[in-house]
Amino acid sequence: MISPIRGLMTGLIDYAGLFPPASLEMNEAVRRYAEYRKGAHAPALGRFIVPAGRLGELRESVLKMAGRESTAAWPLSVIAGDDLEGELAGMVDLEAVTADGGETQWARIAALELRASRPQQVEERLALAGKRLSSLDSIEVYFEIPLDPHPGVFVTAIADSSRSQVSGAGRNAGRSVFAKIRTGGVTTEAFPEPEAILRFLICARDAGVSFKATAGLHHPLRGRYPMTYEEDAEAETMTGFLNLFSTAAAIYAETGTEEEWLALLTEDSADAFTFTSTSIRWRDLDLPAADIVAARHDFARSYGSCSFEEPIAGLRALAMSRKEA
């Protein structure tokens, strides 16, 4: 039986080393991701996140590092901006050079991340991507949506645009169009209120929409942390990734009440958690490994982080301190 920690962490962290606050150079981000793929915590590593406009730069860096030898293809999550038409061109080029094995199969597009500032853009941008990308039906598409004043109209648009790919178990199995929420950043304004996050989680669960999160999730527990790596960086109260994904699992399993979910989402005490061989326990609420695995597979997909080492070290220390004897 899979452990609850492994169920929580498998493929959880999409590596965003190119993005703030880390903002690494391409070669350094590539070097680190390659090391993480071979490291002890590789099961927790998800996709390499890259802007669509930097795919060519990424290709050169990866192939140079690999010596143009055969290597397992890197799963990419490609972020497109406002110039979707132009940025799709780089993705089309990637499809072309890797399609027939003419070049080392160094990468595959596993996900496309887009923004929607109005609900209608979900269908519009999805249709445009479908015209250009032959692989769109085999990748996951995430739409970053605003949490305020209410995400309901965006979640509904995403649910309406979801296309079944394959049959399978789970309420959200086979979905190809998902939501993305921003849980932080490098400015105070980037951090949503916990109530807004909870409102989204419940709304997404009810609509059968899976999601990923991004930013501000370097630490397992909610707390006040520096927003950047600068010595004089301002601090802000951040949601912990354990808070977010435990709450998502509880909501998905319909375990607990809305009041308990908000308390779990905002919990900042390590003493409130206990890690056993079969569950993660928060106060009087028990989350069995099976519920965590189901939520991760069908609902709470992953999150983007510019650090891979910080979340791993933080959860490891917390789990060791709160492990049931």
Notable traits:
single chain; 325 residues; alpha/beta; 8-stranded parallel barrel; 13 strands; 20% strand
Please describe what this structure looks like.
The chain has 325 residues and is of the alpha/beta class. It has one domain: Aldolase class I (TIM Barrel). 39% of the residues lie in helices and 20% in strands. It contains eleven helices and 13 strands. The chain has an eight-stranded parallel β-barrel, surrounded by seven helices. The chain has a three-stranded antiparallel beta sheet with strand order 10-11-12. A two-stranded antiparallel sheet has the order 8-9. A hairpin with a 3-residue loop joins strand 10 and strand 11. Helix 7 packs parallel to helix 8.
Quick summary of this structure?
This protein is α/β, with parallel strands linked by helices and 325 residues long. Helix content is 39%, strand content 20%.
> What class would the helix/strand composition place it in?
alpha/beta
The number of strands is 13
CA radius of gyration is: 19 Å
Spatial strand arrangement across the major sheet:
1-2-3-4-5-6-7-13
Query: Beta fraction of the residues?
Result: 15-25%
Count of distinct structural domains: 1
How large is the count of helical segments? 11
Shape: globular
State the helical fraction.
25-40%
Provide the CATH architecture. Alpha-Beta Barrel
> Which regions contain 5 or more consecutive residues with pLDDT less than 50?
164-175
What is the terminal separation in angstroms? 19 Å
